[in-house]
Amino acid sequence: PRLFCEVFLTGVALFCEVFLTGVALFCEVFLTGVALLAAQSGRSSPSVAALAYPLRCFCADLGRTFMAFVRVSGDFCQAQHLSFVDK
What we know:
Helices cover about 90% and strands about 0% of the residues. It has helices at about 1-40, 45-85. α1 (about 1-40) runs antiparallel to α2 (about 45-85). It starts with a helix and ends with a helix.
């Protein structure tokens, strides 16, 4: 059970990191594309372009926070398992 818990939580953490990185890159590319289209149409929209980098940073921070939560959950799961084994 302990090994399963560790493997499962590690897998969840890696999946979330990859998923959130993908979301961040998609948002950056999308917002950059919107800014380019706005520039080509003659409408200047620096606020849209300015959102791309902070949004990517936010998604990266969210991914790191969630991974930290998953790691702490794994430590808790391991501690619970060890206390159960000791009894």
